[in-house]
């Protein structure tokens, strides 16, 4: 079964437009049936239109949590949930979910989710899928707690809880610690982004992954961007793009 028709349910226009662009880039043949922004409008659309092959569904909508949709309508297609938070992950898998993407959604993660869908529909019945069957396709998330790095004639441990932020410099990943020291980390920021707990760490841009406690102040920047001032490290200039600004504010406000 080929993926042809997708329904997007997302209440933030910038996120919805970006998701649509990414989907059409990764699967140019697909049709975006509609973009709905609330529980009410989504229920109305689902009741009056043909069943999509896949729903891209934001957890928090303008008028409530999207889980309410499933209480009112029998959804008979797979769902990929999207959200700025991970607090609803387990609950999401009770509702035909095949993946759960944290915002801002990156192209590589979306591609992985689409491939999971393509594998999923070949092997697992779509209607009333059991949570246990779904979880066999989803590896439990175990966040990184420490790094073992070279030190003198041996190795030493750096705890993730001691990191204020990660950054790249001349292609090398480094960690700025709370004691002011800087350590070279063997992982790339892309690898770290998948290994770190998103409750505490945020990928601000291509150069920085910041810890929530490292942010002293958030300042408005030009063209809808934000500028972060980090505690104890005013020399670090961290600019957040307009596309990621909303996700950053949601992350810090939770």
CATH class of the largest domain: Alpha Beta
Instruction: Return the CATH topology of the largest domain.
Output: Rossmann fold
How many H/I helical runs?
A: 8
Order of helices and strands: EHEHEEEHEHEHHEEEEEHEEEEEH
C-alpha Rg (nearest Å) = 20 Å
Query: What is the CATH superfamily of the largest domain?
Result: Response regulator
Class derived from helix and strand content: alpha/beta
Walk me through the structure:
30% of the residues lie in helices and 33% in strands. It has 2 domains: 131 residues, Rossmann fold (3-Layer(aba) Sandwich), CATH 3.40.50.2300; 108 residues, OB fold (Dihydrolipoamide Acetyltransferase, E2P), CATH 2.40.50. It has 254 residues and is an alpha/beta fold. It is elongated, with a radius of gyration of 20 Å. It is built from 8 helices and 17 strands. The longest helix has 17 residues. Strands 2-1-3-6-7 form a 5-stranded parallel β-sheet, with helices on both faces. About 6% of the residues have low confidence.
What brief labels describe this structure?
OB fold (Dihydrolipoamide Acetyltransferase, E2P), Rossmann fold, five-stranded antiparallel β-sheet, elongated, 254 residues, 17 strands
Question: How are the SSEs placed, and which strands pair?
Answer:
Layout: E1 5-9, H1 13-26, E2 31-36, H2 39-48, E3 54-58, E4 60-61, E5 64-65, H3 67-72, E6 79-83, H4 89-92, E7 97-102, H5 107-123, H6 131-135, E8 146-151, E9 154-159, E10 163-169, E11 172-177, E12 182-184, H7 189-195, E13 201-203, E14 208-211, E15 215-220, E16 226-230, E17 233-240, H8 242-253
Parallel strand pairs: 1-2, 1-3, 3-6, 6-7
Antiparallel strand pairs: 4-5, 8-9, 10-11, 10-14, 11-12, 13-14, 15-16, 16-17
């Amino acid at each position: 079964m080929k993926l042809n028709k997708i329904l997007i349910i997302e209440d933030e226009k910038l996120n919805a437009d970006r998701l649509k662009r990414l989907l059409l880039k990764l699967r140019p043949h697909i049709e975006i049936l509609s973009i709905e922004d609330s529980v009410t409008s989504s229920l109305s659309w689902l009741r009056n239109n043909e069943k999509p092959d896949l729903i891209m569904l934001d957890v928090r909508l303008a008028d409530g949590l999207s889980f309410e949709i499933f209480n009112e309508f029998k959804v008979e297609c797979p769902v990929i949930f999207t959200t700025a938070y991970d607090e609803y992950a387990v609950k999401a898998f009770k509702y035909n979910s095949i993946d759960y993407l944290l915002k801002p959604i990156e192209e590589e993660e979306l591609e992985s989710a689409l491939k999971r869908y393509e594998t999923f529909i070949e092997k697992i019945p779509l209607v009333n899928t059991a949570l246990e069957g779904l979880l066999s396709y989803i590896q439990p998330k175990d966040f990184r707690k420490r790094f073992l790095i070279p030190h003198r004639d041996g190795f030493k441990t750096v705890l993730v809880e001691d990191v204020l932020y990660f950054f790249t410099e001349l292609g090398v990943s480094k960690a700025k610690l709370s004691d002011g020291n800087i350590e070279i980390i063997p992982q790339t920021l892309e690898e770290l982004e998948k290994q770190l707990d998103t409750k505490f760490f945020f990928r601000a841009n291509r150069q920085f992954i910041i810890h929530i406690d490292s942010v002293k102040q958030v300042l408005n920047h030009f063209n809808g961007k934000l500028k972060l001032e980090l505690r104890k490290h005013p020399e670090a200039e961290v600019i957040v793009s307009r596309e990621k600004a909303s996700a950053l504010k949601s992350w810090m406000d939770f």
